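dumping this here before i forget
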Amino acid sequence: MTAAADRVADELRVLLAEVTGRDELRDIPATTALLGGGAGLDSLAGTLLLRQLERRYGVDVAAEDLNLDALETLGTLAAFIAARL
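structure:
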């Protein structure tokens, strides 16, 4: 990942912990899947995360990535956001 994506990933870890109330998400690696087994985001947490991303970064992931491939892992989401900053 680029330095910008690394910085965004660090910020996303904090945001994930805040959105879910799960402090252990502050330490997940960039390869962690966000949905399903990895970080375990459900549809509500995913929606809250997308809303926070738009507020914080001005990036509407759902509008720009219709398949939501950017949400595959923490690293793919960080790279997606960093490329738009």
